[in-house]
What does this fold into?
Amino acid sequence: MVLLEASIQLVPDGTLLIHMLMVAVMVFVLNRTLLKPINRTLAERERQVEGRLQEAKMLAAETEEKLKKYNDALREARGDGYRLLEKERAEGLKAKDEAVRLYREEMSREVQNRIENTRRQEEAAKKELEAQAGAISSLISAQILRRPNP
It folds into this structure.
């Protein structure tokens, strides 16, 4: 018996064909019942993922475009603000210069009036001093010459 075990060889026979047929039937049944629905579900998920990925790309592009428009509008608004600020500053400087010019003119007129007033006072003082000088000289002459005062 020991010799028989060592010399056993496998020879293909009819059972091999039955086993192969059973494996083919099992593969067919598994494909139909399990693998085909799984593959269909996986393909549907892949399409959904692809669709959502495309939608996300479109939303990202739309967001980028809106952000660009926002930045452009913001830049334009800042420019308008700076231009308005510069205009207001220029108008303020012009108004200040005009106010300074008017004040200088007013002060110049005031100084001129005071100078004229001082000159009139000076002329009046000169006349008064001349009159007083004449009276004093007459008094001095009368006292020196011992004459009565006219």
